[in-house]
């Protein structure tokens, strides 16, 4: 099976799964008299819509590249740098909950995002101030939305 064909099939299957998720999320229990965003089915439905849009984009991009030759790339597990980044990302994901218990959500998230963005940025392109700004902005937005607006408690540690 060619990559083009498998991408189209994957896009169609993901679109169908997104539709199924959207329908199933409609049967989740709701609270009467509360904001729609606080109901249990809201976030799964939002993720289903995002998944549907991305699957359509996958199919459209695959069809658009129909006449172009795809450059041959080695599988990610055969490239030393890609495999190293994969392992480093896996280690960061495993360490994140432990660091969160020690330092708290905001501090651990800032450290995690900083390390992950630095790791995934092409060497020579990494600008520390930009990476720190991105990590701070993402952490701040998540903290404001979930902690302050939705009043969801976060793990507290030695720091924030």
Secondary structure elements and pairings:
Layout: H1 3-25, H2 42-64, H3 80-103, H4 105-120, H5 128-149
Helix pairs in contact: 1-2, 3-4, 4-5
Short description:
This protein is mainly alpha-helical.
Structure description:
The protein is mainly α. It folds into 2 domains: 3-67; 76-149. The protein has 5 helices and no strands. It has helices at residues 3-25, 42-64, 80-103, 105-120, 128-149. Helix 1 (3-25) packs antiparallel against helix 2. The longest helix is centred in the middle third of the chain and has 24 residues, at 80-103. It is flat. The mean pLDDT is 81.
Percent of sequence in beta strands: under 5%
- Unreliable stretches covering 5 or more consecutive residues: none
Summarize the biggest pleated sheet: none
- Derived structural class: mainly alpha
Number of strands: 0
User: Mean pLDDT, nearest integer?
Assistant: 81
Radius of gyration: 20 Å
Shape: flat
Distance between the termini: 50 Å
Summary keywords:
68% helix; 160 residues; 0% strand; 2 domains; 5 helices; mainly alpha
């Amino acid at each position: 099976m060619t990559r083009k064909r498998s991408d189209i099939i994957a896009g169609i299957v993901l679109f169908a799964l997104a539709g199924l998720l959207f329908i199933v999320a409609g049967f989740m229990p709701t609270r009467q008299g509360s904001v729609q965003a606080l109901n249990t089915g809201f976030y799964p439905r939002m993720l289903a819509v995002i998944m549907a849009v991305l699957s359509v984009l996958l199919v459209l991009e695959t069809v658009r590249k129909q006449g172009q030759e795809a450059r041959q790339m080695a599988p990610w597990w055969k490239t030393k740098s890609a495999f190293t980044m994969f392992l480093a990302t896996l280690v960061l994901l495993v360490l994140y909950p432990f660091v969160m218990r020690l330092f708290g959500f905001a501090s651990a998230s800032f450290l995690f995002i900083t390390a992950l963005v630095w790791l995934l940025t092409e060497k020579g392109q990494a600008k520390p101030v930009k990476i720190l700004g991105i990590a701070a902005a993402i952490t701040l937005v998540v903290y404001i939305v979930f902690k302050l607006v939705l009043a969801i408690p976060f793990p507290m540690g030695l720091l924030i």
